[in-house]
Structure formats: structure tokens, C-alpha cells
Design goal:
By secondary structure, the chain is of the alpha+beta class. The protein has one domain (14-151): endopeptidase fold (from Nostoc punctiforme). Helices cover 27% and strands 20% of the residues. It comes from Oryzias melastigma.
Length: 154
């Protein structure tokens, strides 16, 4: 991941990225700046519902939206408002924060390909679901699948 502790200036509504493992990052949203800063953690597969014993390749796991202190992220995180150049952020206090507040404590479905923490974070900030991490995987996987399909092996 290469994320360093840059101690960036954080603002409510920022997308906060922090490493989960050597390949993927996790994403949340900053809710408060003054006093105790909190990150709204998007769902992830490590918080899966107890009735889902076997992860189906990261698909359709039940999860809960939580509010955690920023300090829980450790020292390696960064602000990653990845789509600010192409999309306008939505009004945080008027639209985004109330929607996030309504989701806290609610059960949600996590799907690594179609609804992961990055999808959720960009959906709240921009109104668009996007995961650059998954797009990078598709860049590598799709050509291999296309070749197999063309050779009638898939």
C-alpha cells in the first residue's frame, strides 16, 4: 500500500483510506473534526455476520456499519478524495451526514466486487459507486478471461 502517516488535515466528509493487508485498502468517512474525530467505517468482510461461516470469495457477507475513533486506524492512513477532479462532493451536513447517521448500527451486505467500503465511501461523497481497487483487478483479469473465452476454455 505504501501509505505513510502524513497526518493530513481532515475535514468532515473526507474519504479516509488505510491499509487492510498488502493488497487492499479499507475506506471510511470522516464525520467530525472538532474534539474526538470519528471515522464512519464502511462495511468489510472481517465484520461478517456469525451465520455466514464460509466467505463466498468476499461476496454477500452481512456486516454492520460502525462509528470508530480515528485513532483506531493507527498511524498509516491518508485522505483519498479520489474523484474530486471529476465529481463534485455532495453537501456533507445537509445530505451525507444524515444518511450516514441513519446507517450506523444497521446491517448491510458487503460484496467485494460490487459493494465494498470504497464503493460505499464514493457513493456517499459523490453519489457514484466506484472502486479503483476492483477496477485495477479487472484490468488484469479481463484479458485473461477473454483469451480463455476466445479459446473456448471458459
Amino acid at each position: 500500500m505504501g501509505l505513510k502517516n502524513s497526518h493530513p488535515k481532515l475535514f468532515p466528509g473526507d474519504i479516509v483510506e488505510y491499509p487492510r493487508n498488502k493488497f487492499f485498502s479499507h475506506f471510511g468517512r470522516l464525520l467530525r473534526r472538532e474534539g474526538r474525530r470519528s471515522v464512519r467505517r464502511s462495511p468489510d468482510q472481517s465484520r461478517s455476520d456469525a451465520d455466514t461461516k464460509i466467505p463466498l470469495f468476499g461476496r454477500a457477507l452481512r456486516s454492520e456499519v460502525k462509528l470508530d475513533p480515528l485513532e483506531l486506524l493507527g498511524t498509516k492512513y491518508r485522505v483519498n478524495n479520489m474523484m474530486d477532479d471529476t465529481h463534485s462532493p455532495r453537501d456533507f451536513h445537509g445530505a451525507v451526514k444524515p444518511a450516514i447517521d441513519d446507517m450506523i448500527g444497521q446491517a448491510v451486505t458487503f460484496d467485494i466486487l460490487f459493494h465494498n467500503s470504497e464503493h460505499q465511501a464514493t457513493l456517499f461523497r459523490y453519489g457514484v459507486k466506484r472502486s479503483e481497487q476492483i477496477e485495477k483487478i479487472y484490468e488484469h483479469v479481463m484479458p485473461a478471461w477473454k483469451k480463455l473465452f476466445m479459446e473456448r476454455k471458459l
